[in-house]
Amino acid sequence: xxxxxxxxxxxxxxxxxxxxxxxxxxxxxxxxxxxxxxxxxxxxxxxxxxxxxxxxxxxxxxxxxxxxxxxxxxxxxxxxxxxxxxxxxxxxxxxxxxxxxxxxxxxxxxxxxxxxxxxxxxxxxxxxxxxxxxxxxxxxxxxxxxxxxxxxxxxxxxxxxxxxxxxxxxxxxxxxxxxxxxxxxxxxxxxxxxxxxxxxxxxxxxxxxxxxxxxxxxxxxxxxxxxxxxxxxxxxxxxxxxxxxxxxxxxxxxxxxxxxxxxxxxxxxxxxxxxxxxxxxxxxxxxxxxxxxxxxxxxxxxxxxxxxxxxxxxxxxxxxxxxxxxxxx
Length: 329
What we know:
Mean pLDDT: 88
Order of helices and strands: EEEEHEEHEHHHEHEHEEHEHEEHEH
Strand order of the largest sheet: 1-11-10-4-9-8-7
Strand content: 15-25%
CATH architecture of the largest domain: 3-Layer(aba) Sandwich
Number of domains: 2
Oligomer: single chain
CATH class of the largest domain: Alpha Beta
Largest sheet: 7 strands, mixed
CATH topology of the largest domain: Rossmann fold
Number of helices: 11
Number of strands: 15
Low-confidence stretches: 7-11, 319-329
Radius of gyration: 24 Å
């Protein structure tokens, strides 16, 4: 795996989620082939991968829905095998499809979840009202969920997950099927959970932009193995093709600059010079220093780095994720 070191957990802040050598097979189909994870508290971690890579299986193992064939994991300080009840008490799980009862109202769904969490009746009603307001569902609180839009159903589903006040939330493709506006509303809600409540989010998504926008760290899973992990910017720098493009007002300035940057690609028609770059600040500073030392005046400067689509294509070789149901989970 191409690994970029995560921030080390301190003695007072152990990882919210850690795993070592997780493996899972279904018959002769190997779904997870020994993955290691370390996810810091109060962060958003995104797991990317093509369909069948094992994303949902990872979530199911870490949320105690299924047992691994091998490996160890701790979630919220609890050993997955020895204290599964402790894990369940500390987490919430939201899947690809909203797990709400369409025949009930939004308020009734939340109160039902409060009963399942064994909250006292008064506390359950207080919590339901608080969540309805937070997710801007108060006006629709007593309407049947069958009348809700997809975005409203997803918000209610996440609100139900929060009834038990979990410290870690697994979001398995939470915005699948939502329109762009509803998706961005969910992004704001997810950011708020981390910023305001200190919740840890484990996110799987088929939308690369979503991981780029939300995640503190991203891991790419392919054929049951983690092939890379790092921040979005770190992952982008793994892929060649990044460059700094300089624009000039005339051919003479372009020619002077081209002589200073031997590896650059010169375009006399567009009056541009493309200089290979890893996108880092030191590289940009070095280019500016050369221009300054040679008294070269560039009319424009733009930094181009590969995006997560490029990273995904290069690391998995299967194309970007799609909406097809994961056959191998």
